[in-house]
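Entry 14. Structure prediction run on the chain below.
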Amino acid sequence: MRPWDGIISDEEQRAYRAAGFGRPSGVGKRPALLIIDVQYRTAGTTPMPFFEAVKEFPTSCGEVAWKAIDNIRLLVDEFRQRGWPVLYPHVAPKNQHEGGRLAEKVPAIMNIAANGYDFVREIAPRPGDVLLPKKHPSAFFATALTSHLIDLQADTLVVTGCSTSGCVRASVVDAFALNFKVLVPQDAVYDRSHVSHAVNLFDMSEKYADVAPTAEITETLRKI
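Output returned:
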């Protein structure tokens, strides 16, 4: 069962098929793994139900984050074993004077405790990984990500992290626009809204990326 089944109607799914959307893009020869915003600010320091988690960090997604982190860890292990690059686009601490429209739209995001910006230990960076602080949703916007990917000669991006409907989606769209092949493990991304998570996975699968479970994507990567 796909994440959007029961949310996107069968008729709407047929409409996309009839229009020719949703064809697979496949995988290239030089993949890179993006781990977007997997910090305690989006996961909480321990797995907790959502309304408990937001008491610790208002930007936390609760237990769904930790389920995704288990799968991200599998992908990290696979990439490290293969010697493939792992990159960490992440939200940088925000100063009050640089909030811009984000501070107006979501004021709580400007008051995250310092430890909220730490990477979740289970998938934390190691020496040699690329760290990319960012201020906006897309991992590409005003960062050196494209430059790093060119240097690495990457042709395929596996995009994981948070949130499915926000920074993951924005990064996937930009990656697609830059002509990378994009894979999104549907159980290695997370969002505070189940509906938004599912709808955005569907939309990405139809237009911008190949969306599949982590196990399936791992098997595809092992054929490279």
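Residues 63-82 form the longest helix (20 residues).
Filed with the rest of this week's runs.
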